[in-house]
Amino acid sequence: MVARRHHYLPRCYLKHFGKPRGRGASHHVYVADRDGKAFTANIINVATEKDFNRIDVEGHPPDAIEQGYAKFEGELGPALLRILESRSLNNDDDRLLLMNLIGITAIRNPRRRENIRGFHERTAEIIMDLATSTKERWEGQMRRMKASGYVPEHDVPYEELRRFVVEKAFRLEVSTERHIQLELHSLDAVLRTLLDRKWVVLLAPKETGGFITCDHPVCLMFSDPKRRGGFHGPGHGLPGTEVIFPISRRMAVVGAFEIKEDTIVLDASGVARLNGAMVAYADRQVYAADTNFLYTLDDRKPRLGASLVKDAQFLKK
Length: 317
Hints:
Layout: E1 5-7, H1 11-14, E2 19-21, E3 26-33, E4 38-42, E5 48-50, H2 64-86, H3 92-107, H4 110-131, H5 135-147, H6 158-166, H7 176-196, E6 198-203, E7 213-214, E8 219-222, E9 241-246, E10 251-256, E11 262-265, H8 268-281, E12 285-288, E13 294-295, E14 303-304, H9 312-315
Parallel strand pairs: 6-11
Antiparallel strand pairs: 1-5, 2-3, 3-4, 3-12, 6-10, 7-12, 8-9, 9-10, 13-14
């Protein structure tokens, strides 16, 4: 049977932010949703979309990509355990697997796919608006297309077509195959920049409440807070940027080009700031072991996780 429910965050990653529950020791996480809902869920049921990696390519099974990711996750799971046990990135093979996880998570997620779809749709809107700006222009284009052999399936009156364009009565979709092609093309470039960065290991003592994660946990930002929030966003290869990524409740990493590798134990305030970054970068949901974590947004005082689903800053995205 071909699996239809695909995770864009691996379960072997999510389990490190949850708690085992039940006889099968299946891990559950506390979920805070931007719609104001909070609930506990099995990690099988979070960070997942139907047919997210399904392809329709002749000569390949529909779950070929999903099976490829499953093989990678089979190697990733033990590597994450070794990293967490050693509290370091000294093992080169494990470090490479972690960098691949960060790279894949950065370029393969629902928000990025929607951004790409939206870009294609906006481009189509501009082209269609220009093409139908006047009846004479549209009829001239149709004559040239028909002269080249194009035969339209329907003869739509110009006025109806123009109204369709002006009212934007359409939604342009991008095929999953195209999304995957773009993602795999981007991965090599992103991975090279991740390997070029120096990485600091951040540790969260138990009394701090620990780190959280979200459905978009690769946090890429300018190192200088004064540059954040500008018109131009940071790029993975740009100096003066940092990548923050939580690995578990007790460990996270931050990578930059200008720093030295180190291990730092954070206090409660530092953990709250990192968790605040996860809250801010979340597309829709935040995942935690419970509600006892701390977070801070916009330099406010740290708050307990139980208040997140009532926090106006979180709810307004």
